[in-house]
Amino acid sequence: MKFLKINVRKKAVRWIARGLAATGSVTPLAGWGLQPLNILFIVSEDNGPEIGCYGSPVSTPHFDALAGKGTRFDKAYVPQAGCSQSRASFLTGLYPHQNGQIGLATWKYAMYRPNTPNVVSTLKKAGYRTGIIGKLHVNPSSAFPFDFKAVPESNFSRKNMARYTQATRDFIGKNDTPFYLQVNHPDAHRPFIRQVDGLPKRPLSGSEVDALPYMGLNHPELRQQTADYYNCMMRLDHYVGQLLDILEASGKSDQTLVVYIGDHGADIFRGKRTCYEGGVRIPMIIRWPGAPAQQVRNDLVSTLDLFPTFCAAAGIAAPIGLPGRSLKPLLSGPVSDWRKTMVTEYHVHSNHNPWPQRAIRNHQFKLIHNPLAGQENPGYAFTFHKFLKTEEHIVLGEASERIQQAYARMKQPPEFELYDLETDPFEFNNLAGNPAFRSQQETLLRQLRAWQKKTRDALADPAQARKLFQQITDAGMKRSLLPYKAFMAP
C-alpha cells in the first residue's frame, strides 16, 4: 500500500510539473481523482439544439443517452455564428474580435497572432497526445500542432464516412498517453442530404414536419428543408453513437471527458450568420467521469468556457485573461457567482454578408445593437436568394403581419432590437424604444458597453464598424487578406 501511494504521488508531481511548464502556474489535479482525463471533443456543423433530448421532434437516441449520463446545457452559446469564427473561439478561448478570426478561413481571414495560446498547443505541452479528424478551418493551421490528422477536407458530400470512425479507433487505441481528440463531423452542413449510406433508415419528408419555429414561416419548401435537416441530425446521431462505442470498447471511457457541441445554428433563415438565438444558441452535452448524471443546467455558458474546462480536465491552469471559465463547477451543482449575461457578436462570414453587430442577453431579455442601422443588411438577400427557389414575396405573403415585420426588420435593422425571450423566444416582437421596457434596454446597453471596454472591442466606436463594413464591401469577392488588423486587433 505504501508503494502504491508513493507511485501515485510521483505521477501527480509529474503532471503538476507539466502544467507549470505549459502555463507558468499550477491548479488542482483534474477530475474527481488524481489522473488527468482523456478528452473526446465532438463538433458537428451548422446545427442548433434540434435534438430529441432538447425537445426537438427528431429521433436521436445516442445523444439522448449521452445527456442521460452527463449534463445537458440548455443555454449554451457560440461567440459568433460562423464556422471559422466559432472554431477559432473555442480553440483559443477568445472572442473573434480578440483572436482575429472574424470571417471564414476560406476567404483568407486569419487570427491576428499565430502564437496565441490555444487548446492544442497548451495540452500538447502538458503531455497530451493531440488529434483532429475532420476540418480545422482556422488560419493559420500551423498554429495548431496536432500530432494526428485525418479527413482534413470539409466533406460536405459525406463521402466515405467510415473514415471518421476508423481514424477514431486508430487514434484512441494507439497507447495509454492521455489524449485530446477533436472529431469534426460534416452533418448538418448544407447541402441537407436526405440519406447517406442508408442513414437515416427512414428519412423524414416535408409533409411530416413543420419548418423550424424560429423562422416563423411554414412554406412547403421550408418544411422539406427542415425535414432534410432533421435527416442530417438523425444521421449525425448514428455516427456519434459509433464514436462512443469505440471509446467504450477501448476501455478508456471511464477516464475520458466527452464534450459534444454544434458549431452554431442551422444554415437557414434567422439562423447561421445572425445574432438571433437560432444562430448563436447550440447544443452542449458534457459527460465528466464521476460527475452527477442526468443534469439539465440553465446557466448561461459559452464555447469560450471549453478551453478552461479542458485545462481543468488536464490538471493545468488556463492561460491568464480568458473571458471564459471552467464548466467543471457547474457539473456538480449550482454556482452562485456564475455570469448573469452572455455577449455574442458578428462581423462577416464570406464577403457576401458583412454586418457588424453585437448582442447581449440575460436570463430574460436580449438586446441587439446594429451600428450600421439604416443600411440594408446584405446577409438578408444572400440567404433568401441562395436557399429559396420560391419567390420571397410569396413565402412572406403567407406569414402574419408580425412575422413580415420581423423579416423587414432583419432586412434593414434598426439601431437596437430588444426581445423578451420568455414570452417571445423566437425574437419576433421588438421592444426597443418601448417606454415600458426602457430600464431593461438601458441596463443591457450599459452592460454591453462595459463588456466592449473590458474586451477592447474596436467596434464600440460605430465609425470603426462602418470602416470594417466598407473595407469588406470594397474588397468584394476577392479572397485576399483585408487590413482589418490595423484597427480591430486589441
Distance between the termini: 54 Å
Kindly name the structural category. alpha/beta
Order of helices and strands: HEHEHHHEEHEHEHEEEHEEEHHHEHHH
Report the count of strand segments.
Answer: 13
Estimate what percentage of residues fall within beta strands: 5-15%
CATH topology of the largest domain: the name is Alkaline Phosphatase, subunit A
Average pLDDT over all residues: 93
State the helix count. Answer: 15
What's the story with the biggest beta sheet? 9 strands, mixed
Form type: globular
The structural domain count equals 2
- At CATH level 2, the architecture of the largest domain is 3-Layer(aba) Sandwich
CATH H level, superfamily name of the largest domain: Alkaline Phosphatase, subunit A
Which radius of gyration do the C-alpha atoms yield?
A: 22 Å
Task: Describe, in plain words, how this protein is organized in 3D.
- With 490 residues, the protein is α/β, with parallel strands linked by helices.
- It folds into 2 domains: 332 residues, 3-Layer(aba) Sandwich (Alkaline Phosphatase, subunit A); 146 residues, Arylsulfatase, C-terminal domain (2-Layer Sandwich).
- Helix content is 34%, strand content 14%.
- Strands 1, 2, 3, 4, 5, 6, 7, 8 and 9 form a 9-stranded mixed beta sheet that branches. A 4-stranded antiparallel beta sheet has the order 10-11-12-13, with helices on one face.
- A hairpin with a 3-residue loop joins strand 11 and strand 12.
- The longest helix is centred in the middle third of the chain and has 30 residues.
- It starts with a helix and ends with a helix.
- 50% of the residues are buried.
- The N terminus is likely disordered.
